[in-house]
Amino acid sequence: MNEEQVLRNFENGINPRWPERSAVPAKILGYGEMSTVLEVIPGLACKRLPMFHSEAEAAAYEDLYHEYIALLEDQVGLRLPPSRVVRLADPSWSQVVVYILQEKVPPEAVGNRLLARLSPQETSRFVTAVLLEIKKVFDFNLAHPGQIEVAIDGQISNWAVDGFDPNARSLPDGLRLVYIDTSTPLLRRQSVEQQNPELFLRSAPSFMRWIIRWLFLQDVITRYYDLHKVAVDIVANFYKEQRPELIPGLIETVNQFFAAERAAGRFQPVTEAEVRSYYQEDALTWRVYLAFRKIDRTLHRLIGKEYPYILPGEIKR
């Protein structure tokens, strides 16, 4: 049975509340704001995006995704796992579902899992390696002002160490990172975002979309094009990963790394107060957002309507 048929069978028998109890059982690998990462096919991370209203809309996303991947690999110089896109549609479904199939990286090689075994010094080394990759993105954008720009979500859980030894207690020499979060292709052409901004709202409850559009949508779309905000986001993520004690040292690491950029007026130093404030606001926003999505799921069930999204449980923050 080919990959498309396996995924189609999964969709036809999906249990969004308990994916592991679906007709084709799936293991949950992770959650994003726009997608859920499942292992439906052994050895593949299957990123599920059930948000498209038509084949044409899904095809436009797929074209943008391929352009984004090509830019990140061939021009920016990031390492990405091999991936491919599968589009699924059926007259009985309420939406077109897109899957991004990505070769699964060993879980122990992923950044947030590494934190449990790395010393503060090794963690700083890992973050420095992330910053080197982030710098490639912004160097590319600076070389193409007003023409074409790309953005990535640089938080620690979106990176994996290439060839990591699961028995090792330290990072390898010649550290090489792989960027694994490619399902949100953020790309500007002539300063105009090419991603359809309404896609960010599809998984939101209908009664919340207007306020999200009004208060948050612009920030969600633009924050990853801002080097300072990306740096703050990377450090603030250590609160979520339950390692707040590392934050003062990581702020020093970030500020030292970007010292040359700061001297050129391109980077303002990160402060502990703004990292804490950023995280508190971000955590509250997503906590409220998830609570309302769960209410929306209950309302769908009460009126006998399909709720197509797979929601995480309580997230420790």
Question: What is the gist of this entry?
Answer:
The chain is of the alpha+beta class and 317 residues long. It has helices spanning 3-12, 55-76, 111-114, 120-143, 209-215, 217-222, 227-240, 247-257, 259-263, 272-302; strands spanning 27-31, 36-39, 44-52, 83-88, 96-103, 148-151, 159-161, 177-179, 186-189, 192-193.
Main β-sheet: number of strands, strand sense, barrel status?
Answer: 5 strands, antiparallel
Distance between the termini: 41 Å
Query: What class would the helix/strand composition place it in?
Result: alpha+beta
Q: What value does the average pLDDT take?
A: 90
Radius of gyration: 20 Å
Count of individual beta strands: 10
Low-confidence stretches: none
- Count of alpha and pi helical runs: 10
Proportion of residues in β-strands: 15-25%
Strand order of the largest sheet: 1-2-3-5-4
Order of helices and strands: HEEEHEEHHEEEEEHHHHHH
Number of domains: 1
Shape: globular
> Helical proportion?
40-55%
Secondary-structure blueprint of this entry?
Elements: H1 3-12, E1 27-31, E2 36-39, E3 44-52, H2 55-76, E4 83-88, E5 96-103, H3 111-114, H4 120-143, E6 148-151, E7 159-161, E8 177-179, E9 186-189, E10 192-193, H5 209-215, H6 217-222, H7 227-240, H8 247-257, H9 259-263, H10 272-302
Antiparallel strand pairs: 1-2, 2-3, 3-5, 4-5, 6-9, 7-8, 9-10
